[in-house]
Sequence to fold (415 residues):
Amino acid sequence: MANETQSESYYKTIADANPWLNNTISTDILSGNQNPVTFPTKEETMYPIITPPDQIPEDPNKALKDYASGLGTPPSGVEAYKQAQEGVDITSKETALTTATNEVTQEQANLATINAELKDITSRGQQSQLQLESSAGGKDVTTTFLGRQQQEVSRQTAIQALPLQAQALASQAKILSLQGNQTAAQTALTNAENKMNTLFKLYSDDATNAYNYKKDLLDKFYDVATKKQQDKLDAKKTEDANAFTLLRDELGYQKDLAQTALKNEDTASMAKIMALDPTSKTYKEDLAKLAGQITIKPTITPEEKKSADWTKGRQFLTDNPDATYEQLEAGLRQYTTTLSDADIKSLLGEKGLTKTSKLTREAVASLYSLPDNNEKTGWFGFGKTNSEKLNDIMASIKKYQDIGYSDDEILKLVK
Fold:
């Protein structure tokens, strides 16, 4: 009985020194609260908190606490913080010509708002890091202690920033798509997905590290526990393993929902889903609620898409009254995805625009050193006259022009 009492006291001392074993990780900062990243408290982090040396009272159980502290802490995805500092102020890439439709203007304003939030988050994270270093200066604060606190600030900053970065990149992709730059739009979307993958890897790694840390700690307690305590520890291990498996499944579902929102261009829902704290008590309810709020993009028929491109094309021509025929023609090809060369020519014709070719009869005659007259320059005066030869060349040039070839392309073909 005495041995059991001593062991129970031993276990209780370790547990008291590490309350995070029974606490739920709180990340209220993910719920939309924009207060500055603060120095983590005992209730807000799963990492053991060590009181600064000048505040440590005499502790008769110091040796046991040192033992528990010496076991190490679960590492965090600190590298994600570096990514959180990258891509701040994601810009809306402009095209040479104006495509300032209402939709583009609205999305550009949305992007500016997101960038402002990103800058604020990154700035506050950096300030918190500096505050920690300043507080540690001149005190007997160990590098390990300071590093743990900085890791937590880095983790919280990354968790706040990555959803907004993904949203900003998705917004940029939409702007680029509306402006006709589909290749750049796809690159931006891929970058948004990369930010999403980074965040969920951070969630997953933190969950795995926390689970393994608890498991290792319980294994070490197991060696000094009584049979009765060992039975409780076995039950606790099973409970933790089941909870860990469930959490991994929930994280997979959360990521699937975020990807669904991204594919449907509902970037606001995507960011909210990404920012959900998987350890929150209301996590399941919040996730179910957001799943029902995703706006599914309606399916557009080819005919509807082409009709929309005609409307976009007409607006594009109106927005660029001073552009040359060649600039407008190239812009329409980029800005619309379903219009044929004949459609584009028809659109330009609606505005009374005609293409001015450099390949005039005079220019072609000079190019071929062929005088425009009725003389025959063939062998012994046989064959067509110079004018007839020019007629044939100009007819060939017109055929190429009618199907959309540029002057330079035609010259390569008829030389």
